[in-house]
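User: Structure please.
Assistant: Input sequence and predicted structure:
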Amino acid sequence: MTPRVVFPNRILPYLLLAPQLAITLVFFYLPAVQALYQSMLREDPFGLRSRFVWFANFRKVLADPAYLNALHVTVVFSVATAVVAMGVALLLAVMADKVVRSRGLYRTLLIWPYAVAPAIAGMLFLFMFNPSIGTLAVLLRKAGIAWDPLLNSTDAMVLVVTAAAWKQISYNFLFFVAGLQAIPKSLIEAAAIDGAREVKRFWTIVFPLLAPTTFFLLVINTTYAFFDTFGIIHAVTGGGPGKATETLVYKVYNDGFVNLILGESAAQSVILMIIVIALTAIQFRYVERKVHYG
């Protein structure tokens, strides 16, 4: 029978947890409760008068075509960003894992972009792909590709997805490299001896063993695309042209801080929080079943 381990000091564990609990309470739970309460109020733009309307703000938001458009834009943007960021990061990680000389230098250079702030990343891509002065935009025009993200909605979406994915590739790359290093080389060598080619070894051995890392990054990239890409969209397109790149989080800002529609903006933030929680729960409930942790 395994002996029961008892911590001798009963107060110290609570003291060690207290700072994290306080931060979580002040910066997560209290704002969430405040947003839920404010979402049931109808206020004037200056917040001087308010009236309790229960779920009227939610009904108005969900019936708004502009909000449904933002929901559609968010789905397209999030899926595209996660696929591009994770796919490119996995490719770079596999290539960097094969480098023998200067391996650490290559990995360091690939990790650096993650230190760039989202707004700065957006400005970088805005300058490079600006249809008037952008270097890469000029090259696209010389190649015969019509490029104008300021007027064309598809070009604008491609631009913000590219900027958001570039910002997240370094983070994904770091975890994929760690996952590749944890795979026993003996398994790959045994498959090579049995005659399995490199592509087959990757899909039958390497990628299944990367399933825990891939699942973790899927959750992280989904949350990133929903919340942390606000700075990129604000810097690059401002939700345009014609609200073609206005995601849910940007619409919350636009309605709440620009148009001062406080109650509906709070309702949108609550809906966004519910959507992200539901997506995360679905991923853990169904996607994790296919993850092998052996």
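DSSP finds 13 helices and two strands in the chain.
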